[in-house]
Amino acid sequence: MERAARKAGGRLRRDFGEVEHLQVSRKGPSDFVSKADRAAERTLWDELRQARPDWGFVLEEGGTIEGDPSKPRWIIDPLDGTSNFLHGIPHFAISIAAQEPKPDGSGWGEVVAGLVYQPITDESFWAEKSRGAWLQDGRLRVSGRRHLSEALIATGIPYQGHGDFGEWGRILSAVGPQVAGIRRFGSAALDLAWVAAGRYDGFWESDLNAWDTAAGCLLVREAGGFVSDYRGRSLPICAEQVIAGNDSLHSHLHKLVAGALRV
């Protein structure tokens, strides 16, 4: 995973430099960024396919590619934070996760490994189930803050064609007055990695996809945190609804979110 991410990340860094020059062009960088996204995904697919030829894939661009149903599958987002990349903002990441099938063959179960790689800062956040979460070779732990009044919380804001503005507004109205600050940086994978690293104290968002959160959910859990949906269910991958934080702040956030949605 590390080797594949660094190979794809090197190309994304080069492409990002070109995107910055394209901002002033009449056509703009949109087509170029789409090609960069697909090229990064192809690099990840090639590298991981070579390493595990019988594993399947869930790809943001390429869809689902079936493998041996008794083996794990890769869940990949080659460029989480595409809008940032498109506008020359250096905040985006590659997300890779490995998910095992359920023992009874009834579907997909636990995520057992995850990696979020930030090409611009060269930071590699990774985790293995029951072995902890790490930034490079340093152990990660979620924030120790216990009070919302001290907490910096990350979120994602609905935008054109995505998300429910009414729902998000109700949650913001409930959470905002209780916390020290709210941030929206535009990459859910990095948001969750930063919760695992203690940079953010908590996170909420909805209307995501498995490739956005699969690695990040494992990172938070292996760093000692909690991840659930808005109903409090701890699913292997929380994507449609996500609340993350340490035990105390997750509980506080869940109560605020649940209360806001009952209005």
SSE topology sketch:
Elements lengths: L1 H21 L7 H22 L4 E4 L3 E3 L7 E8 L1 H5 L6 E9 L6 E11 L4 E6 L3 E4 L2 E2 L12 E4 L9 H11 L5 E3 L4 H9 L5 E5 L3 H13 L3 E3 L12 E5 L1 H16 L1
Helix pairs in contact: 1-2, 4-7, 5-6
Task: Put the structure in a nutshell.
The protein has 263 residues and is of the alpha+beta class. 37% of the residues lie in helices and 25% in strands. A hairpin with a 6-residue loop joins strand 4 (93-101) and strand 5 (108-118).
Describe the protein:
This protein has 263 residues and is of the alpha+beta class. It is built from 7 helices and 13 strands. The protein has helices spanning 2-22, 30-51, 82-86, 165-175, 188-196, 210-222, 247-262, and strands spanning 56-59, 63-65, 73-80, 93-101, 108-118, 123-128, 132-135, 138-139, 152-155, 181-183, 202-206, 226-228, 241-245. An 8-stranded mixed β-sheet has the order 2-1-3-4-5-6-7-8, sandwiched between helices. The longest helix is centred in the N-terminal third of the chain and has 22 residues, at 30-51. The N and C termini lie far apart (44 Å).
Q: Into which percentage range does the β-strand content fall?
A: 25-35%
Radius of gyration: 18 Å
Whole-number mean pLDDT: 94
Order of helices and strands: HHEEEHEEEEEEHEHEHEEH
Major beta-sheet overview? 8 strands, mixed
Helical content (DSSP H or I, runs of 4+): 25-40%
Q: What is the SS-derived class? A: alpha+beta
Let me know the number of strands: 13
Oligomer: single chain
State the helix count: 7
Distance between the termini: 44 Å
Unreliable residue runs: none
Strand order of the largest sheet: 2-1-3-4-5-6-7-8
Shape: globular
